[in-house]
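Exam prep: given the inputs below (a chain plus acetyl coenzyme *A), describe the expected output before reading on.
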Amino acid sequence: MNSATPRHTRIVGTGSCLPPRRLSNADLVVQLASRGIETSDEWIVERTGIRARHFVDDGVNASDLAARAARYALESAGCRADDIDLIIVATSTPDMVFPATASIVQNKLGVCGCPAFDVQAVCSGFVYALTVADAMIRAGSARRALVIGAEVFSRILDFNDRGTCVLFGDGAGAVVLAASDTPGILATDLHADGRHVGILCVPGTVSGGQVLGDPVLKMDGQAVFKLAVGVLESTARTVLDKAGRSAEQLDWLIPHQANIRILQATARKLKLPMEKVIVTVDQHGNTSAASIPLALDVAVRDGRIRAGDSVMLEGVGGGFTWGAVLLDF
Ligand code: ACO
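Solution:
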């Protein structure tokens, strides 16, 4: 590539990691019953499409899942950790208040020197991180980036609140991005509306050596549902317009895996058959910033997503934040 060539960003490798401890709805029902909390497989499947999720064991952190997913992504890209010149981790469940989980991942990968930082945009985090990495690559400040979404949401769930604790899981997904003279990422679109901070949040904080406020997830499910369906349609249309493409030209849609009904409503609005939507929420639950790269890796490894396919990634979550990335894989 010479200096006159426009610089583009391509995904050249994907990887993911789920902790081995898998809980089916039936397992979770039993666990919650021991606390006097009543739920059922039928309720969870009908309202959310979730059948199972993975939870980490004590002592396993977001950086452990992130580093494992990153190694698989590096392997699939055919490159080594020291080829990477930028690491961004999207997470809302960092190992520590500081430093960034990205620094911890960098150390676990056995490299040092390149910039490493976290992006906090809850379930939109991966789309935000991908957009930042794409901009840095196109600006010439990075050539090969690791972008990771990693979460241990089981740590911030209230297992006495059946309305939220059945929805989430733990996991990580990663991509390796490389500068390229042919387009991969075609268009990006990011938004936030801070008026809705309160509908999905973990309001606690650390102060004076103590946790102040409630350090578990709070959600107004119906408000989230309504907002999510609206913004997933609008951001999809925006990136399609920016790239001069139509929804019919999409091979695959990978929305944030929050709830099957949100995925179905989004597909309906874009007039896409569900066969074009990658669905992992049934097996992973909602893994927040990890859900999109996890779903991407699953579909790449099972052979559905192939080189050249047109793929749209869509995030939505707390903040309220949302956004999309349209790319040729
Ligand atoms: N098991 C059994 N009953 C339950 C459960 C449960 N796990 N959770 C709630 N209920 C009960 C409620 O107590 C309520 O009972 P009541 O009528 O006797 O009061 C009844 O079910 C209906 O509760 P709602 O909250 O109104 O149920 P709703 O149909 O809205 O479904 C849900 C809840 C699934 C959370 C839905 O609002 C939703 O999908 N929201 C989207 C939010 C989402 O996906 N969030 C993920 C994080 S956000 C993100 O990633 C973008």
